[in-house]
Design a protein that fits this description.
Elements lengths: L1 H17 L3 H12 L4 H8 L8 H38 L16 H14 L4 E2 L5 E3 H4 L24 E3 L4 H10 L4 E10 L10 E11 L4 H15 L6 E8 L2 E10 L16 E10 L1 H6 L8 E8 H9 L12 H4 L4
Parallel strand pairs: 1-4
Antiparallel strand pairs: 2-3, 4-5, 5-9, 6-7, 7-8, 8-9
Helix pairs in contact: 1-2, 1-4, 2-4, 5-8, 5-10
The structure holds zinc ion (ZN).
Length: about 350
Amino acid sequence: MTEKLDNIKNAALASVAEASTTAQLAAIRVKYLGKSGEISLIMRDMANVPKEERPALGKLVNEAKGEVETALESKFAALEEEEKSARLKAEAIDITLPVTPANGGLHPLTLVRRQLIDIFAGMGFSVAEGPEIESDLYNFQLLNIPKDHPSRDMQDTFYVNDNFVLRTQTSAMQARIMTKTQPPIRVVIPGKVYRSDDDASHSPIFNQFEGLAVDEHITMGDLQGCLTTFAKKIFSEDTKIRLRPSYFPFTEPSVEVDVTCSMCHGKGCRVCKGTGWVEILGAGIVNPAVLEMCGIDSKKYSGFAFGFGIDRIAMIKYGIPNIKLLYENDMRFLAQFN
Ligand SMILES: [Zn+2]
C-alpha cells in the first residue's frame, strides 16, 4: 500500500513538473486529488488495511496529498505568470508607431468673416448679431417694404407663419439697432440668411455681411471711401471700385458696387466675363423714411448701409466656382485652406 501511494505521488509530481499550461494543472488536480482522484481512492482502500496500520498510512496519504498540492500551487503560480506576460505581449499596442497628425483648420467662410470683421473694426465699426427667425416688422416693414410691396417678390422668403420669417437679409438687424440706439451708429452684422433659391451661385442658406453708419453729415463720399478701403484690404491694394445706380427700398439713392476682378486685375478674364469688373454688393444712403420709422431724426442725421454675401467674397477671393462647395464639407476642398 505504501509503495502504491509512493508510485501515485511520484507520477503526480512528474506530471506537474511536465505540465505547461494552467489547464493541464487543473486536469492533474482532478486526476489525483479530486473526489475520485487516485490519492482519494487510496483513502477509501483504507478499510482493507489492518486497524493498527491505519494511522501511519493516513499520515502518509496526507503528506503525499500536501506534497502534490504544494507542487501544483507553485507550478500554477509560475504558469499563470508566464501566460499573463504572453497575453500582454500578444495584446500590446505599439504606441510608438509614428502617425501623421490630422490638424483641424478654419472653414473658408470663417476665415473670410474674421478678416472682414478685422477690416471694419479697424474703421471703428462694432459687431452685432441678431435672430435668424425674424419678425415681418424688422425683416420688411421697418425697411420700407410694407405688405404687398412688389420687392417682397425679389426675395423668395421662407415663412415660419404669417408674422415670422427666416430672415432674408441681415438688414433686419439695422432696424433693430436703429429703434434701440441713437446715432452715432457704426455697426457691422455678419450672419446667416435664408432664401428659397438654389443653383450654382445661390444656396437656400448663405452668409451675409451688413454694414450701417448713421451720424451727422454722412454722405455718399463716406460710403465710397469706406468700401474702397474694404475692397483694397480684402482683395488687393490695387483693387478699385465703381458705383452703379440701383434700387433698394431701404436706401435712397441706391448703388450696386463692382470691384476690379482680382483674377485679372481689371484686364478681363473668364471669371469677370471679360469685363474686368465683378459685382460684389448693394449699398446706398439710408432712406430717410427708414430713419424716421426707426425713431431717428432724418433732418439731423443721415447714414449709409451696405450688404454683401460672405460666400460671394470668399468665392471671388479664392476663385471658387460653385457656392455648394462651401456647404458640402468635402475635406478635399476644405483642406486647401489650412
Ligand atoms: Zn477677370
